Amino acid sequence: MSYAQPHPRFSVLSNSSLSSGEHLSPASSSRFSLPSVPSINTATTPKPGARPNIYDRPLNKTRNAEVSSAAFAFLFSEIVQYTQKRVSGINDLERRLNTLGYRIGTRVLELMAWRNESAAKAPKRETRFLPALMSIHTHVWRAVFGKPADAIEKSVENADEYMIIDNDPPITRNISVPRDMSSLSCSSFTAGIVEAVLDGLGFSARVTAHNTPTDQYPNRTTILIKLEKSVLEREEALKT
Length: 240
Description:
The protein has 240 residues and is of the alpha+beta class. The protein has helices at 20-24, 69-84, 90-119, 129-145, 188-201, 229-239; strands at 151-154, 161-166, 205-211, 221-227. The protein has a four-stranded antiparallel β-sheet. Strand 1 (151-154) and strand 2 form a beta hairpin. Helix 3 crosses helix 5 (188-201) and helix 4 crosses helix 5. The chain is globular, with a radius of gyration of 31 Å.
């Protein structure tokens, strides 16, 4: 009985000529050729003239870096429109903007604390509320918006309420609020930033944003800070 011969482009391995180990290990047979794997070099050399990676830039050297106001306005406008389509009312929209701002505020506080510790020989942490509020009014506002806020006020009716006034908030300059949503304050995003910084410094508070326009400043916004009772009690204890 005759068998068909194998095709000349295929090779037949004999069971008697190769052991079971050789069958399982192609590298041990001369019939197999494995290409050599090139070594991976994780160290990359930047090309001449290439822009440095943002993660390789020292944080202190980006202190005065500025972001395009047009790019920021476009991005924030898209955030507001995206959020607006997923809420049931103005209060829900402001709450979500506040939550987004809170996430930014935690990172702003971390970055400012790192810069303060690396630049100062004896870094200082504020333990009183008024100096911390002044720092937010000046340093936090300048770090986020490129300028300090316009004023700080204290409520004459409630001892636990303070206000930061911004006559022309940069984030609302290019936002047009419909008439049926006139009570909406997109500066709730800023209120979230302030609330996160206060919480990180140990001054628990509820922070909200309110439109307080005037003839001279139609976009004027008030950031209302309502401190918790424990913060007021600690402030009274530190006075004595």
